[in-house]
Amino acid sequence: MSDQNAGRVPLLFLALYHNVVFFSIIIFYTIVNAVKFFIPYQYRAKNVKGEVALLTGAGSGIGKLVSKKLAALGVHMILIDVDQKSNEKTAEEIRIAGGTADTYTCDLSKKEEIERTVREIKKAGKEVTIVLNNAGIVTGKRLLDSPDHMIEKSMQINTISHFWIVKAFLPRMLEKNHGHIISLASTAGLFGNPNMADYCASKFGAVGFMEALRAELLHLNATGVKTTTVCPYYITTGMFAGTSESPYIPMLEPDYVASKIVEAILTNQGVLMLPRSVYIFNFMKSIAPLQAEFYQMKHFFKTGKQMDTFVGRQKEH
User: Fold this and answer.
1) Closest CA to 78 of 136, 107, 121
2) 106-118, pLDDT tens digit by residue?
3) How deeply is 294 buried, as exposed, middle or buried, from its count of CB atoms within 10 A (0-12, 13-18, 19+)?
4) Distance between CA 18 and CA 41 in Å, rounded?
5) Which of 104, 199, 233, 234 is catalytic?
6) How do residues 104-153 score in pLDDT, each as one tens digit?
7) What structural domains does the chain harbor?
């Protein structure tokens, strides 16, 4: 045997060893997660009483519901929204129910406003331990009909704001090795849809950001800082008003989604896809030929027509 071939043999054994370990880990955690599935989450939930959570887009929809549910668990809420009136209403409802909340008005499309808001929060002496990037907008038009300023705003609010907010509070989380970062992304961050080019691009960005952040935290051995990426299907909130339903996948109810988000936070779930069938569809997408994928989306899920009737919240963003 030549010296060159002799050198290759240990490398082959090393590659085989790593593959065996890799697949063993997959099998082990598949079994662990299967067991967890049958254990009520209340028995696996962490205690968040006394934590401080910053949540964007708290004035309405999922943001409002999640804020109220976390506050009921003893979490102090820092509520951020561009709509001061609706944001204050959320805070008032939390306080009436016995919770605590502070409000800040901020346009997340402007970095300088985010920086100002962060300074005000830190000046107030609040140490944020949970960050939930929930705020989002959708244009709902075909690419050629989408105004340039709305394309930019979609990216700024749905993706880029996540960078500035996480960068503001992550250093202290790393220092204490304690915290949780959550992003409300979307199934539109997993599958491209017509009339949603800017929205899908921004949500794909949010999903990618969270995946890279999770890998970075693992690399830093910051095991106490958790991440959760939430990818729900259409929700019956004003955000997607007018969107037609698929005959096979019903739209999600807001309270159900909010409850599952809180459950994912309490159990440190890394990725939450809703409904559960999305996990299967996402896997199918990764192995199916491109032609089959488009057939499935167009003829089975009817996604090509769902946004044709979209009207949205009917207010200026």
Assistant:
1) 121
2) 999 999 999 999 9
3) middle
4) 33
5) 199
6) 999 999 999 999 999 999 999 999 999 999 999 999 899 999 999 999 99
7) 48-309 (3.40.50.720)
Task: State both tokens at 209.
Answer: 């950001």
* Residue 102, CA distances (Å) to 54, 76, 244 in order: 9, 8, 37
Quickly list H helices, the chain: 3-37, 61-72, 84-96, 111-123, 148-155, 161-176, 197-219, 254-266, 277-287, 290-295, 303-306
Task: Kindly give the pairing relationship between strand 101-105 and strand 52-56.
Answer: unpaired
For residue range 242-272, what is the model confidence (pLDDT) as tens digits? 677 777 788 899 999 999 999 999 999 999 9
Torsion sign, CA atoms 25, 26, 30, 31: negative
For the purposes of burial, counting CB atoms within 10 Å of the CB of 77, is it exposed (0-12), middle (13-18) or buried (19 or more)?
buried
Question: Which pTM was predicted?
Answer: 0.88
Active site residue 295: no
What is the residue whose two structure tokens read 């946004």?
A: 307
